Amino acid sequence: MLSNLYSHHYSAKISDKTITLIDIKDYDGVVENTTKGNNIISRINKFSILSLFTGILLIVIFVSINFYNMSNEKLNPKPNLVDRPSQIQEKAGRIIPQPPQNRPTVHPPRNNS
Questions:
Q1: What pLDDT is recorded for position 104?
Q2: Which of 15, 17, 6, 18 is closest to 43 using CA atoms?
Q3: Per-residue H/E/C for the chain
Q4: pTM for the complete prediction?
Q5: How many CA atoms lie within 13 A of 6 on its CB side?
Q6: Whole-number Å distance between alpha carbons of 44 and 38
Q7: Which residues of the chain fall below pLDDT 70?
């Protein structure tokens, strides 16, 4: 992306220089400047295209490797390392008791006042 932006910037610089050469009527310099600038811009654009395809290829490889690894984990699940309730050891210190559970009655008493 950065190389593509630089290519546009360089193209604008070459265009400005070409306009300056036309203003001073140096037409031989215009042809030389344009040819040289186009060659450099062409190389930068080729590098940009190559880096784009390299990036896409690397993303495809990354996704393929992760997809392969995830499918293997489903076939051979690894044991869960979380403590099971039977394996939990009592911890030293004060034990906080469970609060009482007062459930409301089905039909609360009515106040006949």
A1: 67
A2: 6
A3: CHHHHHHHHHHHHHHHHHHHHHHCCCHHHHHHHHHHHHHHHHHHHHHHHHHHHHHHHHHHHHHHHHHHHHHHHHHCCCCCCCCCHHHCCCCCCCCCCCCCCCCCCCCCCCCCC
A4: 0.52
A5: 12
A6: 10
A7: 72-92, 104-105, 108-109, 112-113
How far apart CA 37 and CA 108 sit, in angstroms, is: 91
CA–CA separation, 29 and 37 (whole Å) = 12
The encoded tokens of residue 101 equal 């559970």
Token pair for 73: 């984990």
Task: Tokens for 59, please give them.
Answer: 């993303």
CB 9 within 8 A of CB 41: no
Q: Show Cβ contacts of residue 14 under 8 Å, excluding neighbours closer than 6 positions.
A: 33, 34, 37, 38, 41
